[in-house]
Amino acid sequence: MLVVLGTIAPIFLIIVTGFGLRRIDPFGATTWAPLERITYYVLFPSLLFASLSAADLSTLPVGKMAAGVIGAPVVITLTLLLIRRQIGIEGAPFTSVVQGATRFNTYIGVPLVTAFFGSETMALSALFIGFMVPFINIVSVWVLGRYGDGSSIKGNTASELIRNPLILSCLAGILVNLSGLGLATPLDALFTLLGSAAPPIGLLCAGAGLDLAAARTGRTWVLVSTSLKLLAMPGIALLLALAIGLDELSTKVLVLFHALPTAPSAYILARQLGGDARLMAGILTTQTALAAVTLPLWIALLTK
Hints:
Layout: H1 2-24, H2 32-54, H3 62-87, H4 91-102, H5 106-117, H6 122-147, H7 157-162, H8 165-179, H9 185-196, H10 198-208, H11 219-244, H12 248-258, H13 265-272, H14 277-302
């Protein structure tokens, strides 16, 4: 357990550093939004592209991984839809609970999985992201359109997914891989260097986006969403992995990604599409803070 805590501590210290820098504000409040866009549109796509273009895809359990990736959030979402009236939550708050219980924070996940299970898991991480990003965005947009505060969804969901940089980078990496041509050395070095900057900068951005005041908003629903995301979701993922016979390393990656706190992008969707943005910010902040406790427990369980 001490080894687990020692490995995970630097990751959360970077998040705390981002939180502190945002509050001290030495660079100005306008710094963070461009930094987030560079990370989202350039650095993380480079990391995923470089990993998948060089991975041995024949060794990846694509079908079983897809079942595990999609199966867990399906169970959580359907459960929330079925009990929505019984627990007395309607409209915009419900959309934030669903997003909080199902989305995942790529910024924390990639460096965490690599730190514990080695760089060879990067292709599995990219595979998880490639399946999860389109699926969970479709679910989130549908829930917001159905239960949000009358806000019309601007644009087409399909076109938004087609333009998603994480999905595009995964597809491009797979195409290069399948072509057998590989990347020229200068290009491989370029994307590898860009990708190496993604984890620390992403973690700083995650910390900068935390809102402690919002964490006190709607405490009951924050607790519900947080319990589902940090405890139930990885538990369901582990049961699914065992049921479908997923290999040990893939199971570790699957469970750990599903144990991550929710994504900052959930707050953006809540703001744009009629969700409860304040509650979403509270869920995001609470989950990120509590993940410093729950993630070491899941990692300890997985590495026994």
